[in-house]
Amino acid sequence: xxxxxxxxxxxxxxxxxxxxxxxxxxxxxxxxxxxxxxxxxxxxxxxxxxxxxxxxxxxxxxxxxxxxxxxxxxxxxxxxxxxxxxxxxxxxxxxxxxxxxxxxxxxxxxxxxxxxxx
Length: 118
Description:
It is a single chain. The chain is mainly beta. Helix content is 0%, strand content 45%. The chain has no helices and twelve strands. It is elongated and about 45 Å long. The termini are close together.
């Protein structure tokens, strides 16, 4: 599906958490904010800075420990208004997008994308 960016987005996380399926995760706070981005948890894994992880990909072992159900990166895509994007997976208020002009990929808030009708 093709989308257009409705505004600018800049990541606040230059070193996003990235891990493989099965990686052990330490589960921290649940995100609470006005955006309505539900089911995100601040997690850490060995050798990396912490980052926000969608609850759907965490296999909980107990309240603070888990395991990754699949590979994941929290990389956000910096976009400018008018950027054309190919969008795929949607999770908890975000969409995985690839910018058509240069092939770079990352998460973009759903509130900043609109589907291009063919």
